[in-house]
Automatic annotation (TrEMBL):
<keyword id="KW-0812">Transmembrane</keyword>
<dbReference type="InterPro" id="IPR011856">
    <property type="entry name" value="tRNA_endonuc-like_dom_sf"/>
</dbReference>
<keyword id="KW-0472">Membrane</keyword>
<feature type="transmembrane region" description="Helical">
    <location>
        <begin position="12"/>
        <end position="32"/>
    </location>
</feature>
<dbReference type="GO" id="GO:0003677">
    <property type="term" value="F:DNA binding"/>
</dbReference>
<dbReference type="GO" id="GO:0009307">
    <property type="term" value="P:DNA restriction-modification system"/>
</dbReference>
<feature type="domain" description="Restriction endonuclease type IV Mrr">
    <location>
        <begin position="47"/>
        <end position="156"/>
    </location>
</feature>
<dbReference type="GO" id="GO:0015666">
    <property type="term" value="F:restriction endodeoxyribonuclease activity"/>
</dbReference>
<keyword id="KW-1133">Transmembrane helix</keyword>
<dbReference type="InterPro" id="IPR007560">
    <property type="entry name" value="Restrct_endonuc_IV_Mrr"/>
</dbReference>
<protein>
    <recommendedName>
        <fullName>Restriction endonuclease type IV Mrr domain-containing protein</fullName>
    </recommendedName>
</protein>
<dbReference type="Pfam" id="PF04471">
    <property type="entry name" value="Mrr_cat"/>
</dbReference>
<dbReference type="InterPro" id="IPR011335">
    <property type="entry name" value="Restrct_endonuc-II-like"/>
</dbReference>
<dbReference type="InterPro" id="IPR052906">
    <property type="entry name" value="Type_IV_Methyl-Rstrct_Enzyme"/>
</dbReference>
Amino acid sequence: MDFDISLISDYLLIYVLPPLVVVWIILLLLLYRKRKIRLVKKSMSLIDNLEGKDFERFLLFLFRKLGYKANLTGRGKDQGADLIIKKGLFRTAVQAKRYNHTVGNAAVQQVYASKKVYNCRKAMVVTNNRFTREARELARKTGVVLWDREKLIRVMIKASITPKIVGKVIMNRGDGI
C-alpha cells in the first residue's frame, strides 16, 4: 500500500487551513472589540467626573472626529444649545448634559427652541446619563434626537475614544479644540 503525502498536504491546505485562519481572525477581532469596549467604559468614568464645560469640549472633539464641522456656541448665555454641528447641508443644535441624574423635559424644550435661534434644522441632547420617560416622549413628538449613555458609548466605540484621548481633551483647554 503506497501512501501519497501530497494528498494530505493538499487536503490540509484546501480544507483545514482556511477555516482555521477565519476562526483566528474572528478571535482577534473579538478580542480587539472587547478591548475597545473596556477602554470606552474607562473613558465614561472619566466623563462622568467632568465639569459641564469640559463635557461640551469633549463632545466638540467627538463630533469633529465623527466628521462633523462643530463649534461651541459660546460661554454664558447659550440660548439652549452648547454646540452647533454640521454635516452636509444640515445644522444641528446640540445641548450637552453631563448629569449625575436623569435628564428631563427642560433640556429637550431648550434645545428645541434653540433651533430657531441658531438657524438649525435639527436639535439634539447628549448626556452621559439617561432621559426621563417624559423627556423621551417630548423628544419623539418634537423630533429632537436623544443620545443617552448607551448611545454615547456606541458612538465612542465607533470613534475609538480612549481614556488617553479624554484626558488630552481635558488638559488642552486653551488649544481651540
